[in-house]
């Protein structure tokens, strides 16, 4: 009996020793993993801060860029109105107002939804509309969703986790799916474009996709590539189709995630739709002056915006100058994460900003 008790005690000791060893090894593993993740996070934050510093070409001044309504335009309320580049002086074009339009891959970004951090959805479509008040003209700048840019992350309590280089589409997701998300997106896009002020914003959720074409009586366009043939034979490259509520969502949303840079392929399709939609909207507005108002009212339940109907009418009836401009960059696949990324070409982007938002100063 005594020998058996001794063996039982020995077995118990062996089990306890094994458990202790496992706990120690797990603790060491967690510690190593935590340090590695911390190092990676700090490295990404360092890269992000360097990127922000590179974009800090517009130094702060004491003159506010806010409009009379108190709406400010970017990560800072003050941006430098004059810059020098390659011996040429430039001044900001004071006739320009910039507005951000976003397409969100979620159905929860409305004022009726709960105010909860990290439920905002991602930005699938990002467009900056540059409206010239004096000339009543409009330029459109498109930003691919996978553009790598400084992004500020937040936990579910709404506390900042710092800034790191990441796909810009994620910035909206760190907000509440409403105005907080839009403000975060506005800051991210402004930072990407060297501090350009952005006065207003509008985000539209997935519920608007089947509505867009129907609200203007259908959108006719030419299918630009073969990316949709596998899901709908009628979407053959070169085919002329008129999109309605059923077909427009498929056209605008579908992409094959197994194919590298499929988001860029979809992005190019969306640009074709945007051009055709704008032309159709202006045509219908010319026939019926209440068209834009009807479109606005139809989309309003599915949008978050700090802009009013009068402004939409002004933008919709402005003359569009040239084709939509995509910020210069290159699409790559990140070898470590296997995620698609779009890396901007900084010099070309800076020159695009000067060309779009500034005017040369004659000596």
The secondary-structure class comes to alpha+beta
Q: What is the radius of gyration? A: 26 Å
- At CATH's second level, what is the architecture of the largest domain? 2-Layer Sandwich
| DSSP E strands, number | 16
Mean pLDDT: 82
Strand-residue proportion:
15-25%
Could you say how many structural domains there are in total? 2
**Top-tier CATH class of the largest domain:** Alpha Beta
Low-confidence regions: 30-54, 56-78
End-to-end distance, in Å? Answer: 106 Å
Shape: globular
If you consult CATH, what is the topology of the largest domain? Nucleotidyltransferase, domain 5
Helical amount among residues, as a percent range? Answer: 25-40%
| Total helical elements | 8
H/E element sequence? HEEEEEEEHEHEEHHHEHEEEEHE
Largest sheet: 7 strands, mixed
Describe this structure in words.
The chain is an alpha+beta fold. It has two domains: 55-203 and 312-363, Nucleotidyltransferase, domain 5; 205-287, LCP protein (Aminopeptidase), CATH 3.40.630. It has helices spanning 2-54, 179-192, 209-215, 245-253, 262-287, 291-299, 309-316, 346-357; strands at residues 82-85, 88-92, 96-104, 123-132, 137-142, 148-154, 160-167, 200-204, 219-222, 240-243, 303-305, 319-320, 325-326, 329-333, 340-344, 358-360. A hairpin with a 4-residue loop joins strand 4 and strand 5 (137-142). Helix 3 crosses helix 4 (245-253). It starts with a helix and ends with a strand. It holds the Pfam family LytR_cpsA_psr. Residues 124-282 form the Cell envelope-related transcriptional attenuator domain.
């Amino acid at each position: 009996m005594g020998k058996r008790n001794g063996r039982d005690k020995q077995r118990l000791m062996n089990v306890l020793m094994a458990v202790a060893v496992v706990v120690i090894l797990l603790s060491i593993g967690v510690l190593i993993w935590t340090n590695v993740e911390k190092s990676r996070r700090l490295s990404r934050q360092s890269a992000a801060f360097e990127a922000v510093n590179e974009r800090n070409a517009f130094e702060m001044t004491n003159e506010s860029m806010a409009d009379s309504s108190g709406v400010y335009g970017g990560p800072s309320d003050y941006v430098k109105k004059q810059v020098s580049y390659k011996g040429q002086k430039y001044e900001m074009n004071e006739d320009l107002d910039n507005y951000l339009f976003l397409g969100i891959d979620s159905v929860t970004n409305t004022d009726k939804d709960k105010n909860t951090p990290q439920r905002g959805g991602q930005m699938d479509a990002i467009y900056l509309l540059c409206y010239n008040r004096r000339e009543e003209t409009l330029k459109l700048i498109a930003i691919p969703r996978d553009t790598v840019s400084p992004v500020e992350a937040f936990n579910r309590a709404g506390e900042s986790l710092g800034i790191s280089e990441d796909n810009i589409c994620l910035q909206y997701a760190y907000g509440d799916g409403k105005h907080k998300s839009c403000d975060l997106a506005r800051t991210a896009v402004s930072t990407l474009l060297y501090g350009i002020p952005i006065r207003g914003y509008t985000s539209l959720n997935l519920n608007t996709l089947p509505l867009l074409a129907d609200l203007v009586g259908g959108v006719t366009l030419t299918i630009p590539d073969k990316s949709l043939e596998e899901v709908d034979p009628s979407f053959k490259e070169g085919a002329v189709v008129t999109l309605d509520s059923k077909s427009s969502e498929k056209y605008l949303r579908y992409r094959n995630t197994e194919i590298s840079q499929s988001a860029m392929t979809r992005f190019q399709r969306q640009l074709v739709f945007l051009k055709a939609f704008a032309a159709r909207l202006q045509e219908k507005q010319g026939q019926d002056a209440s068209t834009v108002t009807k479109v606005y009212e139809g989309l309003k339940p599915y949008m978050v915006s700090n802009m009013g109907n009068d402004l939409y009418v002004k933008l919709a009836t402005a003359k569009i100058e040239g084709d939509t401009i995509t910020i210069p960059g290159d699409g790559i696949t990140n070898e470590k994460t296997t995620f698609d990324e779009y890396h901007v070409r900084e010099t070309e982007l800076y020159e695009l900003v000067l060309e779009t938002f500034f005017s040369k100063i004659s000596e």
